[in-house]
Amino acid sequence: MRTHHWIVALPAIAISVVGGLLSLAIAAIVVLFATAQTGADGTARVPGLTGEVSVIRDEHGVPHIFAESRLDAWHALGFVHAQDRFFQMEFARRTAAGRLAEIIGRPGLRSDRFMRTLGIHRLAEHSIEGLSTDARAAVEAYARGVNAWLDDPASRRPPELIVLGVDPEPWRAADSAAWVRLMALLLSGDWRTEIMRARLSVHLDTEQIADLWPGEPDSAPTTLAGLPGLDRAFAALDAAIPDIFPEASASNEWVVAGARSRSGAPMLANDPHLGLSAPGMWHLARIVTPEFTASGAALPGQPFFMVGQNGHLAWGLTTTHADTQDLFIERLNPDDPSQYLVPGGSLPFDEREEEIRVRFAEPERQTVRTTHHGPVVSDISPDSARLAGPGRVIALGFAGLRPDDRTANAFFAMNTAQTPEAFREALDDFHAPMQNVVYAHRDGAFGFAVAGRLPVRPGGAGPRPVPGWTGTHYRQGLVATAHRPPSQYGTHDAIVNAHKRVVSPTNPHPVSNDWPEGFRAQRIATELEKSERHDMDSFAAIQTDTVSLGALSLRAAMLELLPGARRNIPEARALAAWDGRMARDLAAPLIFAAWAAKLQEMTVADELSELTGRLRGLRVRMLRRMLTARPAWCDDIDTPETETCADITAASFDAALADLREAYGRDSEGWRWGDAHRATFAHPLLRFVPQIAALVSPTVETDGGDHTVNRGTHRVRGVRFDHVHGAGLRAIFDMAQPDAARYMIAPGQSGQFASPHHDDLMDAWRDGRYIDLATDLDTLRRARRPELRLVP
Hints:
Helices cover 36% and strands 19% of the residues. It has a ten-stranded mixed β-sheet with strand order 1-27-2-3-6-7-8-9-16-17. Mean pLDDT is 88; it is low at 1-27 and 216-226.
């Protein structure tokens, strides 16, 4: 039988047609994203306003809101946030509510199961009930502003929602409170470290684990002994946790007294570090009313400035790194598996049923169980539930999951406080996440406080999971305000915090087992001491400083172990002469980063196996300890010829140079840190569509590294060091003129790809420049900036 050539060609024709249609679909989506933009001028009718509001955007797209009352201003801010960032807001509230699978299908299930188990959005509804009358009025005014934009016929839906076919629901006050709850979860990651310690304790002894986390108490309990199979349970739980947590946790803040500033008033600087994305986490705005003037950075979806100033006070935040989470291994009652054991008996689980709707699939039903410690997280996925083993479950205790959390209330009070006393009183309601707060007042007062709830643990802060049925590790309430880490109220001429330890090791209520390395705080303090008096420019120079004391410390140990012959090659000489600046135009930072990454991998890989990649970031304290005091780590079983730390140091140096030459050429004088260290601002959803992501993800080469004040935390990919985490916001305040604060965010104000303000701040952010929001209504109008009139 003769076969026609066109029949044989059908599969190829079909593939070609499908490929063409796919290309057309991608092109249509790109055009939609490239042309969709919401107007920034004109007139809009906004129900609920008591008077007319003018919103004028400056040259950077920052809205200046002029209103007759602060409630009208927050109302307008909701409208503006929706204009600029509504898809980001929608994505965040769906993440918090466990409703991503409704719009993206099964890929959203991992996150949804997790959020439904923790009950983040249910808890946010409790937060609204606990707000003060004034705070609730502000949040509800903001929600009305968001809904006014949604209802405005002139509003253009974000293209992401058009492509997904999503018709957004009205915004509720609880959606705003959910943002605060979600941030509390994202900035409190100790339980993931507990999971890793638990998994490692099957393979390593206590001393080896202490090498990985120098400073961990020797008395840390090993609870997996006698409980076979839990290593598989924790591996399954690890796999079930969604990939939504930051790559690292690091921020800087400092404040100096008026005696140390050129203006004679206190000065404050803050740069919170989070993951980099487009749009970024932060949105800048300025509010001007007869009773209230403020500027700062908010998270789109909630109305209050998390970092900012109100004419009387300025404030900033860093994460405390407090251990506010504990994993409990709970035993089931052998006679009644609907109950779990407690000292003296058993208790029934609190249970609820959750239905997770899944696009293109049947809904999934999930039973959520809760113990007196907290939700049963081993129920997140079928695998983790099965592998928890017969007769036991794993529960999470977390201060941020209490229904009476009043952190949203605290932010309102912080934003509106006019005296240091009122500001400190506001911090009493700041419950989660635990934060280090600095503030400065225009009358000369300034201070530092640790705010947040810390559990009372009779056995101390546990670095690993503990038994829940014995009562030995039962959390006995919360540490009273008077017994939390001590505050400092202007007792020094300068206060610096960059995640360094905030209490002594002998504190009766342990705060953390794992304080970050103190190189950034040391560098900030040193730079502050170089000048008797500071101004905005000197503070900016410190915020954008790129000297890595951590790299210099480790470089010294590495070169000391390097055999003499290798010290004379050009790359080693470049490192020896290097001043520690992680500048993008230098070769030495690239040589150091590649060598250190290879050395860390070769040192721990045979002991940690598949968990090696979980040690994110360069761990200087750990690696120095191994090289100088714990040489057993240098015995690489895969390469017997490397038996000493000098051997493994040389082998890693050779391997790193070989990789660099292959990637960047044989002449190391032409190597540049910026060629390997680039920040990519990826869209939270489109990053999973490579064909589109490459077109809509702003990218820029950057300075900095893991231990620089100008943080450039990177993810190692061979000899690429992708900049994934850093100061998405910088702010500097001089209380002699608080309204003239300097700010910078990345990559820009707008979440709309077609907007000129989508990534227009990226180069300025990279280069350490700032913007000033101090201007008046007449000046903005004379400059013919876009003006939006919101009328009742």
